[in-house]
Amino acid sequence: MSSMFLGIILILGTGIAVLLVFVVKSFLVPQQIAGIEKLLNAGKYPQAIKQARVIIARNPRDADARYLLGKAYLADGKAELALMEFKVVNSTAIFSKTIPEAEFRKTISQLFLKYNQPEEALKETLLLIKLEPFQAEHYYNAAQLFEQRDNSEQALANYKKAVEADPKHASAHAALGLLLFRNKQMTDAKQEIAIALRLDPKNTKAHFYQGKLLRESHDYANALAAFEKVLRDPELKQKAMIERGCCYLEANSTEKAIIEFERAINASSDDSSNDTLHARYFLAACHEKMRDIDKAITQWEQIYNRKRGFRDVGEKLSQYQELRTNDNIKEFLTASKDDFFTICKAVTNSGLELMVRDIKETKYGCAIVAVENDAEKWRNVRKMPRLILFYRDPNMIEDSFLRTLQEEMKKQSIIRGIVITSSGFTRTALEFAESRPLELIGREKLELMLKSVNVFGKK
Fold first, then answer.
1. Is residue 194 a part of any domain in this protein?
2. Which pTM value belongs to this model?
């Protein structure tokens, strides 16, 4: 037998072997994929995960196996691992009978939302709209994501498309009503909310949005009743508690607000979620309002440890950091009404050398009408009163506050005014006071005055 003949036989044998391997793989892999699907349907998720990993180890580009592995992870409570697999599948964009595109995009969109990736969720939702343009739920989800991005124009358009696609979509009618209300389209807003509740009187989202609409109208009693109906919905329960707390806070029922915010915090299973952080933020606002600054600081620190850039928490902590070392400012900010009046009278008498004629409480501190204290010097001269405002609200004083003060001074025929604050003044406020008979005393000078009068030592 010649060497050439042997070579031909060897080449043919190799080709046949490769062909056999290909045929076997073509037969076995689909069988293995079908086996994984059966395991998933039977609820045998660990076995499905194991088999899918075996296929991926042999061929990392097998999209079907990765998709089924992601589904198995998701069913087994391992959502983060599922998202990792779905991302790989999404990068190939190869869909099949095993990977139905619409189902895939719905699932990955929900996972993106779960792990705080709203931009990616929106991309998937918009692709779903192209795939299934008559599905109202896709428009509704897109509208909610646009609303989160403060794109009210696109949100409004998609809510309208949702109710056009399905006129019986109660949640879309309710959300559209709230957005119309925020756009000052009151008649249309109430109409949409009414439609939502007529379609589904038990729809908790409709009641939730109705409550928000009523709250923004300052109809707190009916808003509380609407939110009460939402508490049985696990998805909206915490949000409804926060809204109820805000109703009480805005209605100056601070103690009831504290109860609601504490309930909202206790109802959460995730201390880092935005809803929980908002509940803590509003709870801190309640404590700050009641002058219980130590408790407010505790809540701000909890928020700061989880999300440093959350609202103005960093500024709040910086503003109040001196409380632990500066007893004078702490007493000024946290004193009860009677003690606070005592402090302000002492500062007026000793620090400003004026005599107090009248004192009354204000929502930001107190207002004192005082006159010059030197009786001998001014015996034959009519004493000119001054209006002194002590301000212990944490916010900076704006020029609008000073404009209102001047109007009040005119009503009382008072020419000169003094504003004393533990916070500070905005640039526009300082500029406004420059050409007017207003003296502005900020935190540093207040500290010196409190130290010099020593009212705390006398107490």
1. no
2. 0.61
